């Protein structure tokens, strides 16, 4: 069984919902299963610590999850056209894994959510790709052979699945966004399975 790590940060739940759809796509591929993980918030208090287990949602990621995974889907909400600080903080701490080549040669994809249609989704997706490239991962996008990519009026880009959550973060995933996230998860799992063969 190939474990595919779906690692995300979500403050209001939109990115978490995308992660669940990506996991659904992964789980639809024989021999693959999704491992949902999140990262804790970054505190402005230097001595603050997060509880060992989050109050709700996925468990916090551990470095062993990176070692164990056959592929990685990385998700973050958009923060001024970039990934959220919590995800960047986690990635900045992966130098030992980078030196050991833990993620080298494994497939990866990225996903995001923003409050507005033009809130920096594509630049966020591209910024999340940079550390993955440094880790030697093989990046997968969403091809236009996915019909929803050509007619979506909400989220979805060739760089990765995305969601437009609205100013109050109360907009649920559209059918196009769901289809694209599921397709991205399936594509990632299929690539991981082929690479492992």
UniProtKB/TrEMBL annotation:
This is Flavoprotein WrbA. Its cofactor is FMN. Keywords: Flavoprotein, FMN. Residues 4-188 form the Flavodoxin-like domain. The keyword Flavoprotein applies. InterPro entries: Flavodoxin/NO_synth, Flavodoxin_CS, Flavoprotein-like_sf, Flavoprotein_WrbA-like, FMN_Rdtase-like_dom. Belongs to the WrbA family. One of its GO terms (molecular function) is FMN binding. GO terms for cellular component: membrane.
